[in-house]
Each structure stands twice: as C-alpha cells, then as structure tokens.
C-alpha cells in the first residue's frame, strides 16, 4: 500500500530542491539579480527542449497562460534575489516562505468551489506565527534590529508564488513540458533587463557552476515537479505541506551563513511542523 500519493511525492521533490535556493542566492549575491535570474531560468528550461523539438505542441499554450508563467517564474525569483540583497538573508528567506500560508488563505478566493475549513485557518495562523517567531529569533543572533526595506520584495515574492500556484488551476489545461517555455521566456526577459539596467558582470567558473546548479535544481526541475503536484493534488493540502520548505531552507541557510540555531528558530520549527500536521488533517 502506497503511503504517499503521487502528488505528495512530486511536491516533496520540489520542496527538497527549493530548500537550496536561498543559500545559492546568497552565495551568488555579487551577481546582478537580472543576470542571475535570466541565466538560471534558461538553464532550467533545457530539459524540456528535446520534447519541443520532437513535438511543438509541448510548448503550445495560450498567451494568457504564458503571461501567467512569466508572472510566476520571473516575478517570484527576481523579487526573492532582491530581498536577499537588502535584508538579512535568514529573515528575508522566512518572509518569502509565507507563500505556503498564502496558498492556504487565498485558495477559496482564487479557486471557486474550494472551502477554507476552521482547521485550515488555525494551521495557517500557526504557520504565520512560527515564521514571525523565527524572524525575531534570528534577529537576536546579530540580524537586523529594525525594519529592512528588503522585507517588502520578500513579501511580494511570497504573494506572487502563492497566486501563481493557484491560478495555474484556473487557466486551460497545459502540458507540464510547457514549464520550459515559461522558464525560457522569463530568462530571456531577465537577460534583456540585465543588458538595459545593470552593469556588465564577469562570472568565474565557480559562479557559472553555481548558476548551473541553481538552474537545474530549484529554478528548473523543481518547477516541473511542482506543476505535476498541483495538477494531481489538492492545492490546500500541498500548501500546508509546503510549510516544510522554510524549515529545510532556513536550516541550510543557517549552516551556510555560520549562524547558530537559536531557541526562537527551534520554536518556530516546532510551530510550523505542527501547522503542517494540523493542516494535513483538514478536509
């Protein structure tokens, strides 16, 4: 008997890859954000190229669907990388990962026929509280002592990804391979912005290796897994499950930045896990 559904396995695969995104973004903080976003998204689209070469319908989507894909992939990651440059990375990462909360709360608004149960509300609030505790706890280890404007793009990226994830269930059905088209167009747009708005940059071999890793993992394969999860699963349940993402991501980011695991972060982790378990029992 299978313990985990196919949609859950796809969601967990995406979550595992996304856990590395903030750490990679921090390691590449010296790379102009449009350049980083564009290069990584184009690399992330590469696995679907052979499919479209065999059958052009693999990328055939209406303009509205393509626009939604650009909104999600380009908008989310650009704002995230901006946030990581203008706010303490741990705190900005946690604000960004309010998108699971956004998926739960916005589901009944953006998806007709989807109900928000009391247990969903309690779980969402508990997850939000856990993120807030984590932010305050991280500040106690040498982080920001006041408001940083980088929290604004972090919050914006959270809203974009939550709304994009839900709206993909509102547009006409499209093949998962079309995610490659979303990434390619978004990447080219980002490179155009780099050419127009940012100074030229020279990347080292190490930089390109990290960009490629970023593209093939959290900015590539994760999108395909996520799309499959949304196509076959309940958006509310997937949103609750996604509370695991900030736990894994923040733990990795703390290791990379050399910051200790504080009591506040540990308490936040317990609260977010409890929210995930609580939300998984809501029907």
From TrEMBL:
Gene Ontology cellular component annotations, sorted alphabetically: membrane
Transmembrane segments annotated in the record for this chain: 33-53, 65-85, 97-114, 121-140, 146-167, 179-197, 209-226, 238-255, 261-279
Domain of life: Bacteria
UniProt cross-references to InterPro entries, sorted A to Z: EamA_dom, EmrE-like
Pfam families in the record: EamA
Residues covered by the EamA domain: 10-134, 149-278
Keywords from the UniProt entry: Membrane, Transmembrane, Transmembrane helix
Protein's recorded name: EamA domain-containing membrane protein RarD
Organism: Pseudacidovorax intermedius
Source taxonomy: Bacteria, Pseudomonadati, Pseudomonadota, Betaproteobacteria, Burkholderiales
């Amino acid at each position: 008997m299978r313990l985990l559904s196919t949609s859950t396995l796809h969601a967990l695969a995406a979550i595992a890859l996304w856990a590395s995104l903030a750490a990679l973004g921090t390691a590449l903080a010296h790379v102009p954000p449009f350049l980083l976003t564009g290069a990584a998204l184009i690399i992330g689209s590469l696995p679907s190229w052979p499919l479209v070469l065999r059958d052009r319908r693999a990328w055939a989507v209406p303009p509205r669907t393509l626009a939604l894909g650009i909104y999600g992939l380009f908008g989310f990651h650009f704002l995230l990388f901006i946030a990581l440059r203008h706010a303490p990375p741990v705190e900005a990462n946690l604000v960004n990962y309010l998108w699971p909360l956004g998926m739960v709360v916005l589901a009944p608004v953006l998806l007709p026929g989807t109900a928000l149960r009391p247990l969903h509300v309690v779980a969402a609030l508990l997850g939000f509280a856990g993120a807030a505790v984590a932010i305050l706890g991280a500040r106690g280890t040498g982080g920001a002592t006041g408001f940083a404007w980088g929290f604004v793009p972090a919050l914006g990226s959270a809203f974009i990804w939550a709304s994009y994830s839900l709206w993909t269930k509102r547009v006409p059905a499209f093949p998962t391979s079309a995610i490659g088209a979303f990434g390619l167009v978004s990447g080219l747009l980002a490179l155009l912005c780099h050419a127009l708005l940012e100074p030229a940059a020279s990347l080292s071999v190490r930089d390109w290796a990290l960009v490629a890793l970023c593209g093939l993992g959290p900015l590539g394969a994760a999108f395909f897994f996520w799309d499959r999860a949304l196509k076959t699963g309940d958006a509310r349940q997937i949103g609750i499950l996604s509370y695991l993402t900030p736990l894994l991501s923040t733990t990795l980011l703390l290791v990379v930045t050399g910051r200790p695991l504080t009591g506040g972060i540990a308490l936040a982790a317990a609260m977010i896990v409890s929210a995930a378990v609580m939300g998984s029992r809501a029907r």
